[in-house]
Amino acid sequence: MKTILYATDRSEYAVPALKYAYQISRKLNATLLVLYVHEMEPLRVSVSRPAAQIEYHVIKEQTEILSSYCSKHLGVPVDNKDLQAEVIHNDSVTNGILEKTKDVATDMIIIGRKDKHTDRGLFVGNIGKRLQEKVPCPLLIIPNDTPDKPLKTILYATDFEEADILALKKLVPMAKLLAAKIHVVHISTEKEYAGKEQMEWFKDMLKQVVDDSSIEFELIFSDNIQDKLKVHAKTIGADLLVLLEREEKGFFQKIFHISLVAKMEEHIGIPLLSFNEPNL
After folding, report:
1. How far apart are CA 187 and CA 17, in angstroms?
2. Are residues 203 and 273 in the same domain?
3. The overall pTM is greater than 0.85
């Protein structure tokens, strides 16, 4: 992993997410690019300077503000090696982030979770969903009040599909760098299918492509998948929840269809990492 892009609104409430993004970038040996998408106000007709010149000076000023924000809260300089800061102009936060990923080869995108303190800061709702559908890399969504503590337990929710194996193949090296264990869980109704047989098949398939010595497996039966997942995350002390966004309806869609986004946002208080199946 070489570059992690973290999009911020530069608010005080987003500082814990900034620190989390920086710490995870250090552990993954990646450069952290902190991005601020600036929405410029319409220029008045009476302004005499060329619009491009005005935009240049505005972006320069906003970049200085962003660099100061990062240095102040991280205690390290923006050195363009381990830590970079950039401001771009776009009327859409989503489009701004996506355009930046075209300019810079990005291995992970991090955004903060929208909270009640600010309309802009950030993003889960519609922006998060639009990003998840289009991002070329994993998307990590961080609650703005995420505590500064080591990431030790990763909870991966599986549907026993080959795409899950591809996602775990990417997740295992990250977990090793983070010194974290992976807990793989499948939650389904007892009527759905023979879960135990599926679990054994999945474990055998996974062993062929990754070292699964740090992976634990669990099968849980419940008629309420999303609530059981939240309870299970608390039970095992999960620090990160990982889901796969599938092209076809699967586990992620059962939990995160539009009507449930707000519920999950409120009740799961840990970071959420999602892989997009087409990019695996």
Report:
1. 29
2. yes
3. yes
